[in-house]
Protein 1
Amino acid sequence: MDKATNHPYDELLAAYSAGSLPLSQALCVSAHLENCKSCGQKLQRLNRVGSQLMQQLKPARASEQLKNRLLDSLDALTDEAAEHEPTKVDPSVPRCLHQFIDSNYNDLAWKRVSADIHSVELCRDSNGAKVELLKIKPGGSATTHTHLGDEYTVILEGSFSDEGGLYRQGDFMVRTDNDQHTPVATQDRECICLAVTEGPIQFTGLVSRLLNPFIRRGYA
Ligand SMILES: [Zn+2]
């Protein structure tokens, strides 16, 4: 599905290459990269630049103790990999999400958020960011909302539109806390997104404004 038209910006890819992104954001970049050739090529270039820079650094001598610890942990990793059964996860699920999904999206413990939306939390990052999957029914809508922090979204299946345009499978988006938007899934099929939110959602619609004090997170 190499048809994404919205990609991670260069600074984000550079941070991913340097390994300095928080886990939650790295998951979103990874999910996009698995199906985006152009970002994959960009990442390879960034990795090359990174390794050239590393080669220019004068290596520090590692102690015997550190070397042994490193070798032990590599052994442990290899043993762990050998013990793992071959994956039975549906090939449409990005590899970076296999750690959270045993078979396919249908088997997850989806929770009803509203008539149009279900969600399932995958994990919390150490910085407090929430990593979840959102499922919007065909033609379904999320209430207009803003964010107290940034929101990262990757479309895994289907498509949705909001004030910014139409977003399809593979597209990567970042919404900052100034953006107010109302995503609406297209009519043809349900839309499944990987979403990372750094702060609670703030509803901005008239009725939902009343809900804000009661709902810490969600698309009522
Ligand atoms: Zn891309």
Protein 2
Amino acid sequence: MSPTQPQTPVERADTAVVLDLRDAARAHRITLHDAPALQPQERLSAIATWQGRMVNEHVSARIFRSLREQAVDAGLSQDWRDRLARFEADELRHGGQCAAAVEALGGSARALLPALPEVPAHDDTDALEALLRNVLSVSCLSETVAVALITSERWESGPAALAETLRQILRDEIGHARFGWRLLDELAPKLGPARRARLSAWLRLAFGHLERHELSQLPSVAAPSDAAEQVGVCDGRVSRQLFYDTIHDVVVPGLERRGLAAGAAWQGRVAA
Ligand SMILES: [Fe+2]
Ligand SMILES: [Fe+2]
């Protein structure tokens, strides 16, 4: 199957690359009839938060597109590859939904795209192990953490339209996380000890990268007001604790049950 292709909503402004999702925002338009009264700074914080999500979702689509190509090289069945194609379309839709939230809050669904490194090809190993490294990183680590964080954000959400947006995104992110855990369920029993040891060693880098990325996204300063929290501004300290709890209580035990030395990898994590 072929997912919805992006309409290349990026443009170059001098050297910076701008992501422009205003058309997508109109397609997913929402209205915040029941938003709390916001101070100007609270509104700006909420707009910046949803703009950041909009960028992250757009980047995620590109990652699943690369994973689908890797899945072909690794010989995964059509069913697994179809799921990755759906995930790419999901992430593009999420980008549009977050863009709609930006515009509903009074902002513009345009944002600078950060420099994007290529999704690692892992040329030092074979196609299956290369794919597994990236699936571990994307599904079992990042998407699993995203499920916990979005669940928490959904509970704090005030306006019905924002809560519904997060509900729909969460439903898809659960599928993106499960993909990795299910693929590992299928493949882990067939992985020999040498491959398991190499994947476990590689997890040290994946955990280091994840921690650095997540902490960069989660503010470490004071709690936002109730009104700001209702429109998406997260309490960074709470979110950081939730991140570590998810790693300790969900990700590490899940990987250990599937034969990977994830506890030692987390303890020995290194920033890439
Ligand atoms: Fe997403
Ligand atoms: Fe996702």
Protein 3
Amino acid sequence: MEVFKAIRERKSVRSFDEKRDVPKEVVDKILEAACQAPTAGNIQPWRFWVIRNIQVKAGLATAAINQRFIAQAPIVIVVCSDLDISAEAYGERGRELYAIQDAACATENILLAAHSEGLGTCWVGAFYEEDVSRVLNLPSHVKPLAIVPVGYPSHPGTKPDRMPIKDVVEYVD
Ligand SMILES: Cc1cc2nc3c(=O)[nH]c(=O)nc-3n(C[C@H](O)[C@H](O)[C@H](O)COP(=O)(O)O)c2cc1C
């Protein structure tokens, strides 16, 4: 799919066809796209947890202030960053900023790649970090940054409008 088409069309999906699985090859393709994102100094501090386990998905939904649609998706990808890797390379700026930005870039690639494969996703950021870490048994230096349920949409849904470009851009000629 052409990149502008994918960017324009992608929208958050919060309702999934629970009976339709996502093949492993497609998940691998999405993860490959995630890992093509840029990272500061090409450090690649991102770590991905790919969850199919029903109990773990339910635990993540609970940790995400009970957003149950997370558990409905056949696959949930949790995008994390290893803060120590970023800090080792870039000190506090690495730990506090680059590690988060790097994971955000990967997350956007996941959303776009999934969309181009006909899948729906939603970037879920509202969650109790300690609860997600406990559910996934994450080491303390690995910070969960985004929960992304992935599945075939059960409803097309609508994309909310964006602000006009002129309201968000300052041109400096
Ligand atoms: C950092 C971040 C956190 C978000 N957290 C949630 C969330 O916890 N739950 C949810 O349903 N959507 C969440 N979203 C999705 C946004 O609500 C959605 O992207 C926005 O309303 C624009 O809609 P669209 O994705 O359909 O274009 C989040 C998006 C981002 C980028």
Protein 4
Amino acid sequence: MPKHKGTDHLKADLRRKLSKLKEAPAKKKAKQVDVFYVQRSGSGQVVLLGTPNCGKSSIVAALTNAKANVADFPFATSTPVPGMIQFEDVQIQLVDMPPITADYIAPGQVGTYRNCELIGICIDLSADVTEQMQICLDFLESRSLLIDEQTTAEDEHGNILGKRAFCICTKSDIAKPGALQTLKQACKHSFEFIEISAERGDGLDKLPAMLFSLLGIIRIYAKPPGKKADMDEPFTLPAGSTVMDLAKAIHRELAEKLKFARIWGTGVYDGQNTQRNHVLNDKDIIELHFS
Ligand SMILES: Nc1nc2c(ncn2[C@@H]2O[C@H](COP(=O)(O)OP(=O)(O)OP(=O)(O)O)[C@@H](O)[C@H]2O)c(=O)[nH]1
Ligand SMILES: [Mg+2]
């Protein structure tokens, strides 16, 4: 713009507009939703892992009310689908997942495994079991997702990165002869194995109890003094938890005021007085006394 008296006003006006624009706050970014984040529910989260078409969705569809997408073509599942399994009086969350291959793992998928308590490696007994296990182990080991007693990988906060894992052998009704044996021999880890057929239902009834046992949790029933225990909704705690851990789970601040506890259950006589550091057993009933 030519510089003379007539353009002074115009110039000042433009400068004002420009500085106003510079000050204007940047438009808010749309909130990003992580589709691979699965909110935990129940007493433990178990996430399935496996190659395409190995039968993951069929397990979730058979054992939970979730709408897992079972299909006879690969990559039918594209995002995690959580469902709830009932084991006795405990709810366990089972999560269907998109498949992994040697070449492709959906971005964000690692996060789901990082967040869970137990990984169920699904291997199709009617296909190449050695190749499937290799793909799954490469994925887990390269991301320090497996518990390793010798070298415990930790994050910057000291949390152990590794997860417990076990192996669900699927499609037992159409298994190749000797497939389970081949799989066990090819696997250098001491996983527990369960053989199932979602088609015929074989082995499915054993899976909930197995998940409960592998999650390493115990159920404790709280009893208010002088009243009956609440036998409907147990507290679930990691195995090895003490009376004090239970008190903290019930009320963190009140826990400091714990005087003593009475216990009915394993290895004690009914109503025995116990110390804060007494280690609890599955199905113990506890009466907490506070000062
Ligand atoms: N015969 C037999 N077929 C099964 C069994 N379980 C699953 N299938 C079949 O295998 C195919 C794949 O099953 P899905 O459960 O969808 O497999 P998936 O692992 O979820 O597959 P992706 O979503 O691609 O990862 C379907 O046609 C199922 O009917 C089984 O126990 N026996
Ligand atoms: Mg699926």
